[in-house]
Amino acid sequence: MHITIPDGAARLLRRLNERGYEAYVVGGCVRDALLGRTPHDWDICTGALPEEVKAALPGNTVHDTGIQHGTVLVMEGGEGYEITTFRVDGDYSDHRRPDSVSFVRSLGEDLARRDFTINAMAYHPETGLVDLFGGVEDLKAGRIRCVGDPASRIEEDALRILRALRFAARFSFSIEEETGRVLHGKRAQLDYVARERVFSELKGFLVGDGVCALLLEYRDVFARIIPELAEMFDFLQHNPHHCYDVWTHTAHAVGHAVPELPVRLTMLLHDAGKPRRFTRDERGIGHFFGHPEVSAQMADGILRRLRSDNRLRETVVRLVESHDWALPETERAGRRFLARLGEEGARWSLQVHRADILAQHPATQAEKLARLDRAEALIGGLLTRQVCFRKRDLAVGGRDLIALGFSGRAVGRCLDRLFDLVVDGDCPNERDALLREAEKVRAESTESLLPSD
Ligand code: ATP
Ligand code: MG
After folding, report:
1. What integer pLDDT is reported at residue 275 of this predicted model?
2. Is 71's C-beta closer than 6 angstroms to any atom of ligand 1?
3. Separation between Cα atoms, residue 157 and residue 131, nearest integer Å
4. Closest Cα to residue 253, out of 212, 218, 292, 219?
5. Ligand 1 atom 28: the closest Cα is on which residue?
6. How many other CB atoms are there within 10 angstroms of residue 40's CB atom?
7. Best mutation site among 115, 157, 166, 183 for ligand 1, i.e. most ligand atoms within 8 A of its Cβ?
8. Would you say the C-alpha torsion 240, 241, 242, 247 has a positive or negative sign?
9. Suppose 156 and one of 3, 61, 92, 430 were both cysteines; which one would form an S-S bond, judging by CB atoms 3.0 to 4.6 Å apart?
10. Which residue has the CA at smallest separation from atom 15 of ligand 1?
11. Angstrom distance (rounded) from CA 403 to CA 438
C-alpha cells in the first residue's frame, strides 16, 4: 500500500535512517492518508532518543516541546514535525496519565501502546506499511477497535472512551462490539480524567459527521461527563411541534447543525432546561415556558465546569438563550436582531434555528423553514448594505456630543438614543441628521430642567 508523504517528512526519515535509526510516519497521518483525507500533521516515530535525534539533525531548528515524553518538534522545509522516540507508557495508577514513559527500541512495542487499531499503523516509503493489529481491515470495515484487550486499555486511560466516540463520529465509523461494551461499562472512570481533556475530546466529537446516532447509543457516557443531560432522556414533550422526546430531539438537532463548534454545542444544550420548565395546559399539551433562560443558565454552569474558554462559553450561552427568539421579519426587527447578537452571533443563531427546526415534527417544518429562509435573506441583505447595527459604527461619536454641550453620563445616554433611532430606521446614519437629533435630545433635557409651572 502506497502513501504519498511530504518531502520534508521523507528527508527527516532518510537522515535518521542514515545515522542507523529506524524512523516512520505514524498514527493519525497514516490513518488519514489511507482514508484519502489530508492529514493535518505528519508525526514521526523513531528508535533514536531525543538527544540522538538532535545530533542526527544538526542543521535543523529543534524545539524541546515534549522532551520528557520523548517528543521534539523539528523544523524542516518550513513545516514542523513532531519526532517521538518509540516508547511504552508506565503504569496508569490514576487512570489518567502514565506515571512515567520508558523509551524502547522497537516499533512494535510503540504501536501496541496506541489506542485504536486504525491509529496504530506506521509507514516508511521504502519498507511500506506496518500494520500489526488489523488497522487496514478495520479502516475498510469502518470500525473503531481497541488495540489489545479493550477493558484493560480503557482502564489505563478512560479518555479513550471519548476518543473512541470522537473518531467514530468523525469518520462515521461503528464501534466494535467488545470495545463498545467497555465504553459503556467503564464510563464511571471518566470521573478521574481532567476536565480540560474531557472537554477537548467532546469538542472534537461534536463537530463530527456521525454524532446523532452516537449521542443516542452512548447517552449514558455523555451523561457521565454532563449529568444534566440525563434529565432530557425519554422526556416526552406532548406537543404537536415535536415527534421526539427531548434527548432524541437534541441528538437530531446536533446532527442537523452545521459542523461549527459553537452551533453544535448550542444544540447539545439548548433544551437542557426543558424538563425543569415542563407544564401541561388544560388540553394536555406540553409547554416549556422560560426554558431557554434555564437552559442558558445550565449551559453556563456546565461550560464553566468543563473549563471552556470564556469566549466560547459566552457565545454558547447567548445562542442557547436566544434559540427560541422570533425570527426577524421586518427590516427594523432584522437590525435589532443584529444589534443584539452581532454579525457572527446572528449568523450562528440562524444556523441554530435551522438545526432546531430540522429536528422537529416533519409536518411543521416547511412553513418554519420558509420563514427562516426569509429571515436569512433579510439579515444577509442588511449585512451587504452595511447598515449600522453596532454603536461604534454610528456616524457621530461622544466627541461630537460634547461639542454640542453634552457632558457626563448624558453623552452615553444620548448615544444610546441615537443608536436606537438608527437601528429602528427612524433616522439615517448620517452625521448631520444625527446632530439634529442630538440637538432635540438636548433641548428636551434642558426643558425638563426648567420649573414646570
Ligand atoms: P487527530 O487527527 O485528531 O490529531 P490523531 O490520531 O493524530 O488524530 P492525536 O490525539 O493527535 O490523534 O494522537 C496521535 C496518536 O497518538 C494517535 O493516533 C494514537 O496513536 C496515539 N494516542 C493519542 N492519544 C492516545 C491515548 N490517550 N491513548 C493511546 N494512544 C494515544
Ligand atoms: Mg494528531
Report:
1. 98
2. no
3. 23
4. 212
5. 115
6. 8
7. 115
8. negative
9. 92
10. 27
11. 11
